[in-house]
Amino acid sequence: MAQSYFAEGISGEATFSMYVREYPPDRGYLVAAGVDDALDCLEALSFDADSIDYLRSTGIFTTDFLYSLRDFRFTGSVRAIPEGSLFFTDEPVLEITGPIIAAQLAETIVMNQVQYQTLLATKSARCVQAAQGRPIADFAARRTHGTEASLKMARASYMAGFGATSNVLAARRYGIPPTGTMAHSYVTSFDAEIDAFRAYSRMFPDRSILLLDTYDTVNGAHAAVKVAREMEADGQRLTGVRLDSGDFDALSRQVRRILDDAGLDYVRLVASGGLDEYRIESLVTAGAPIDMFGVGTRVGVSADAPSCDMVYKMVSYDVRPVMKLSEGKESLPGAKQVFRRFDRQGMMSGDVISLEAETGPPGEPLLAPAMRDGRRTTPPSSIGDARQRVADGLSWLPEEHRRLRQPNHFPVSISEDLERLESQIRGRLTAALSL
C-alpha cells in the first residue's frame, strides 16, 4: 500500500481512529493499556540500512520507493486517552493524523501494543474486583505467549490493581514489588517435606510461604504448624502457606482450622492454580478463608477472551471525511472526541462521541494531545498514575456495568453533528454506488 501511494503521488494527511467494535464475552468496560508503548514505537518508527536491504531482496519494491525510506520517520500527531482510563465500544482509544504512508504504516504496531495489553489490564481488573480487597499477585510468566508478553502482563496487572509479580525483570523494570514462593520441585528435592519447609524458613525467615500440596495438603499443613512453632521459638513468624490444587474452598477451611487450632491465626492462606475472576468470585462469595490469590495462565493469556475486536480505520483523508459501509463493520467518519458525563453522585452516566471540531456536549473530554510531528508532547504516564486511573474509573462506574457476568452496556451515543455527518457521507456514497 505504501509503495502504491508513493507511486501515485498520494501523500495527503489521513486520520485513523483505533477503537473496539464489540466487547469480548462478559465485558462491560475496557481498560486502556499499551498506549504509552504505542507512542514509543511511533517515535522509533524508521528503516535502517539492513531493513531496506531486506526489502530490496524480496524483489517486491521499486528502487525509488526504497530510496525514499532512507529518511522515513513518523511525523504525524496523536491524540489518545491516558493510560489506565476506562473506555467503551466505538470510542477511539487513540487517533493518528499524518501523511498517509506514515499513518498507514503505524497500524500494525499500535494495534499490537494496545489490543493485547488492554485485554490483560481488563482481565486483571476483573480479578481485582472479584477478590474484594484481597491481594493478588501475578504468577503468569511461565505460560504467557513469550517473554515480552510476560512483561506486559506484569505491568498491565499491576496497573489494574495487583500487588506484586513473580517476574523479577518486570519488577525491576516497572517498579513492581517482587514476590515468589517455593515450587513442588523444591519440596521433592528433600528427603522429607518438613525438611524442605525448615530449609526454606531458615533462608527466608521474614517471608516464608510454604507450599502444602506436593504430597497431601492436610499433612502438609500439620508439617507447616511444626515449622511455624519452631520459628516462634526463634522469635520469628511464618508468613503463609499456599494451596495450589484440589478443592480450594474445602481445603482452605481445613487448613485454616489446623492453623487456628495451633494458635497460628496470623499465618496467611494463599491460593494459586487455574484461577481467574470467576473462580476467585466463587471462592470469595462462598466465604473461603483465603487471604491472597496468585493468578497465572488464565489471566496471562486472557483465556476466555484472547482477543478483542479492535480496529484501525481511516476516518478522513485530505480533510475529506471517509467511512466504511461494510455490513456489520460500518465506521463513523471524521476525527473525533469523546465526552464523559457524570451524575450528581460523581458516577459515570454516559459518553458522547462527537467530532473533534465540536465545542462538545457537556462532559469531560477524554482524548488529549500526545504527539506532534512524531515526537511525544507529554511524558509517559507513571505506572502509579495509571494504576490510580484504573481504580478511580472503576469506583466511578456503576456496578451494573462492572458485573462479571452479563453486564449492562454503558450508554454511549453520538452527537447530532456526528450523526448528521454520518448521514451525509452515507448518502453520498450510496448515491455514487448506484451510478
Explain what you see.
Residues 355-386 are annotated as: Disordered. Residues 136-302 form the Nicotinate/nicotinamide phosphoribosyltransferase domain. One of its GO terms (molecular function) is nicotinate phosphoribosyltransferase activity. Residues 1-114 form the Nicotinate phosphoribosyltransferase N-terminal domain. The chain is built from 16 helices and 19 strands. Strands 13-12-1-5-3-17-18 form a seven-stranded antiparallel sheet, with helices on one face. With 435 residues, the chain is α/β, with parallel strands linked by helices. The longest helix is centred in the first third of the chain and has 32 residues, at 100-131. Helix 2 packs antiparallel against helix 5, helix 5 (100-131) runs parallel beside helix 12 and helix 6 (147-160) crosses helix 7. The protein is 42% helix and 18% strand. The protein has a domain at 2-45 and 74-117 and 310-433: nicotinate phosphoribosyltransferase, CATH 3.20.140.10.
| CATH topology call of the domain at 2-45 and 74-117 and 310-433 | nicotinate phosphoribosyltransferase
Count of DSSP-assigned helices: 16
Strand adjacency order, main sheet: 13-12-1-5-3-17-18
- Gross morphology is elongated
CATH classification, class level of the domain at 2-45 and 74-117 and 310-433: Alpha Beta
According to DSSP, the number of beta strands is 19
**Beta-strand level of the residues, as a percent range?**
15-25%
The structure class reads: alpha/beta
Enzyme class: ligase
EC number: 6.3.4.21
Domain Nicotinate phosphoribosyltransferase N-terminal: 1-114
Protein name: Nicotinate phosphoribosyltransferase
